[in-house]
Amino acid sequence: MAKTNLYVIRHGKTMFNTMGRAQGWSDTPLTPEGERGIQALGIGLRESGLDFNHAYSSDSGRAIQTMGIILDELGLKDQIPHQFEKRIREWCFGSFDGAYGSELFHGVIPRLYHITNYKDLSLEDLVNGIYQVDTAGWAETWEAVSHRILEGFTAIAKAVEVQGGGNALVVSHSWTIQTLICLLQAKANLNLPLPNGSVSLLEYEDGQFTVRSIGDASYRQIGEAIQKD
Predict the structure, then answer these.
(1) How far does the chain reach from its first CA to its final CA, in angstroms?
(2) Relative to the CA of 38, which of 87, 133, 196, 225 has its CA 20 to 30 Å away?
(3) Mean predicted confidence (pLDDT) in 123-152
(4) Which of 85, 90, 140, 224 is catalytic?
(5) Is the pLDDT of residue 133 over 70?
């Protein structure tokens, strides 16, 4: 049986990313720049010679759109099924979903914890802070969000493994990917480099994940160089 590798991709740049709005369970499409960046990623993955036999994304529109572009560039859109997994959605920001990120991260959260920089918090404290200030009752606790994310990615890895392993494309979201990696590495930091269209490689074997790379932008850069030619 081949090893199971998850190529976990952050979706392309969206309208809300560009506007600086908190984009959790709310959704906006990729911008033309975002589409071009993901096309470059698809080209880079194609040029790498990697074979992919599985495709998963969250059920958010921006993740679905991203996967569609990648599969098109790889020539796999009609070759492998694209499956949706809602457990790998982004964090829900509750009543702050769609609000300006600066209001939440540089205003409300620092005031709640009496700090200057929200990045001084652990992921757990940040999630629980969002839960506290959410007036809509939609945001999740750390226990809930960490459980669903780990459960979702584990379910994907097991499904790929059962089908013989190999390489799977998985499109998810910045905070979700950061949460997963921090859980796997028993770290709490808020500073993982995860640009749009970056790839984090996770290996799954004997029921355990191993993080092989984080936020790798090289595939996209290869594609961008080809786009310029």
Answers:
(1) 39
(2) 87
(3) 97
(4) 90
(5) yes
36 is in an annotated binding site: no
Task: Indicate the pLDDT class of residue 108, thresholds 50, 70 and 90.
Answer: very high
Kindly tell me if the per-residue pLDDT of 188 is higher than 90: no
111 assigned to a ligand binding site: no
Known catalytic residue: 90? yes
Per-residue model confidence (pLDDT) at position 212: 96
Q: Which residue has the tokens 């960046």?
A: 37
Q: Is 17 annotated as a binding residue?
A: yes
> 57: domain range?
4-228
What is the side-by-side strand order in the sheet with 166-172?
Answer: 82-84, 54-57, 166-172, 4-10, 199-205, 208-216
Q: Please check if 12 is assigned to a binding site.
A: yes
The mean per-residue pLDDT over the stretch 111-138 comes to 96
Q: How many domains does the structure of the chain reveal?
A: 1
Whichever domain contains 70, its CATH number is: 3.40.50.1240
**Whether residue 85 lies in the annotated active site:** no
> Which is catalytic among the residues 11, 54, 85, 161?
11
Contact 24, 130 (CB under 8 A): no
Cβ neighbours for 201, distance < 8 A, ≥ 6 positions apart: 5, 6, 7, 8, 211, 212, 213, 216
